[in-house]
Amino acid sequence: MGYGQQSPGGEHQQQGPWPPYAGQPPAPGSGAPWNAHPGPPPSPSGGGRRSSVIAVVAATAVVLAAGITGFLVLGGDGDDGKPDAGPTGDAVPRSASPGEPRGGARDGTAPLVPGWKTVVNPKRGIAFDVPVDWAVKSSGWVTYVAENGDPEETPLVGFAAPAILKEKWCRSDDDGNGTQEDTPLASVGSRAEPDARDTAEAARENARLWVYGSYAQPAKEKVATGAAKPFTTKSGLTGSVATAASTGVDGPGRCAYDGKATAFAFENPAGETLSWTFVGVRGVDDEVPEPTVRKILGTVRLVDSTP
After folding, report:
1. Which listed site, 62, 118, 177, 218, has its alpha carbon 20 to 30 Å from 304?
2. pLDDT digits (tens, 9 = 90+) for 177-221
3. Which residues contact 131 (CB under 8 A, 6 or more apart)?
4. pTM higher than the cut 0.70
5. Is the N-terminal amide bond of 218 cis, ω within 30° of 0?
């Protein structure tokens, strides 16, 4: 799976599979990362599942292919790639937030689970907690998966401000190009859902697409998606939750495994649909257990957003 990354320092990297964190920087003076308008993003190495991670430098006005379409960093979304339709960065009034944390820091970013740490997506006003062994990435990081062989790397689905568990859980050179590629055990993040008809649709599609794109493609029939069900987090945030899982993934690489995903979609006080998604390897000894996934999910809450 091809993969790209730009660090906060501006270095652009290419490798795979989903989503590793080391690679080769571009040649000096190569310009804007990813889909800057003169041409398409760099061709990734390998032919497996594809994914990208981009650390957005907020002061740089460039067009990125880190979402469903290219977007401007200044005034653009960092999680779904859709241009802003209007002012969406207003702070969520704390008195109007159904997901306002009960207790903790005044801004809602203190962990609700003792000993855990908080992940915040300030653009969307979403926070949740993860165990201490997860690596929390900066709020500008965006992760997505794309179809195998797509030269444009058009994302199937993505999320921002992720936390990653065991980033180098499996390492292999499946395409034989001499580059070792890393597969993480699990990842979790959040995003906006501007095109979803309702929270049930957003939850089911996120779960399905993450499992398909990360583990099962091109075999869509190997992904089973459950019905969306009502769910309420510890903070009182209500929405829809859905799960998906693959069965019988039998790719040629040593890092080909089945996967699973849990997605929770909800509305903020402005009526915008947002989502949180966990995705990870299943059927292995150190698989993230369902009680842990649900415990993380239970901490999802609304906090003040940042323009």
Report:
1. 62
2. 777 777 899 999 999 999 999 999 999 999 999 999 999 999 999
3. 115, 116, 117, 292
4. yes
5. yes
